[in-house]
Amino acid sequence: MTDEHDPNRRDFIVLTAQAMGAVGAAALAWPFIDSMNPSKDVLALASVEQDLSHVQPGQEIKVMWRGKPVFIRHRTPEDIEKAREVKVEELRDPQSDAERVKEGHEQWLVMVGVCTHLGCVPLGGNKGEFGGWFCPCHGSHYDTAGRIRKGPAPRNLMVPEYTFLEDNRIKIG
Predict the structure, then answer these.
(1) Three-state SS at 78
(2) Fewer CB atoms < 10 Å away: N or C end of the chain?
(3) Of 103 and 10, which is predicted with more confidence?
């Protein structure tokens, strides 16, 4: 003979209903949570590979990465020497040239080409007073290592995360 008011039976029914409610809530919430993940086209831009074999010393190329321009300059020995001669303690955003390039690949300078003042795109090709880049919007000058030397920009041009896959091939991001 079973008791119709068995407390263990009631606990089982309550726990089962709560578990099913939690599963239902999770199933309902998942599409909203999943919609916050980056789309496939954004993930495709998370990294970019670039062949540098055609870039001669003194030349610069611009590639797009995550919707931003990235300047890649093949620096001449003179550019490297100029960058190393600068006294780091005199810089607004002190960074040595060695901190901004990869060891063994000092001839390659890779930087996000967005001015740190208001987000303009600086002009390259030795346009600045220090042999680097010049932002015509507000007059910021960057040197051959992309460090701010004159003007209102508060920081150096950002160096993105990058690795050399081969001597003349890099992956940015």
Answers:
(1) helix
(2) N
(3) 103
Please enumerate in sequence order all residues whose Cβ is within 8 A of that of 125, keeping only pairs 6 or more positions apart, or say none: 60
Two tokens, residue 56: 């001669």
Go through the chain and tell me how many residues it has.
173
Q: What is the pLDDT of residues 4-44, one digit of tens each?
A: 666 677 788 888 999 999 999 999 999 988 888 877 776 66
The pLDDT value given to residue 7: 67
Distance CA 130, CA 92 (A): 15
Strand partners of residue 65: 68
pTM: 0.71
Q: What is the pLDDT of residue 72?
A: 92
The strands making up 48-51's β-sheet, listed across from edge to edge, are 48-51, 169-172, 162-166
Which run of H or of E encompasses 71? strand 68-74
Give me the mean pLDDT over the 78-95 stretch. Answer: 89
Structural domain for 19, as ranges: 1-37
Say if residue 46 is in the same domain as residue 33. no
Q: Is 70 helix (H, G, I), strand (E, B) or coil?
A: strand
From the candidates 54, 105, 138, 141, give the one annotated as an active-site residue: 138
Told to judge if 138 belongs to the known catalytic residues of this protein, a careful annotator would answer: yes
